From TrEMBL:
Protein name: Ribosome biogenesis protein Nop10
Biased composition (Basic residues): 49-59
Lineage of the organism: Archaea, Methanobacteriati, Methanobacteriota, Stenosarchaea group, Halobacteria
Signal peptide location: none
Species, as recorded: Natronococcus jeotgali DSM 18795
NCBIfam families per the UniProt record, alphabetical: PRK13130.1
Ranges where the record places region Disordered: 33-59
């Protein structure tokens, strides 16, 4: 699920603090806006299969 809240991709260079928006571009500088939320999981998780197995056993 993607977040509706986005942050300016160039905020470190163009702004003093992060600029959040709901549109696909920054309202201040016009740069692309990117998803502000981190991924809910790491696709390179080396222990994921063990965690899923424990979750299945505890049900």
């Amino acid at each position: 699920m993607k977040s509706d809240i986005r942050v300016c991709s160039a905020w470190r260079d163009a702004h003093d603090r992060p600029v959040y928006t709901l549109s696909s571009t920054c309202p201040d500088c016009g740069a692309d806006a990117e998803n502000s939320a981190p991924a809910p999981f790491d696709p390179e998780d080396s222990h994921g299969k063990y965690r899923r197995a424990l979750k299945r056993r505890s049900r």
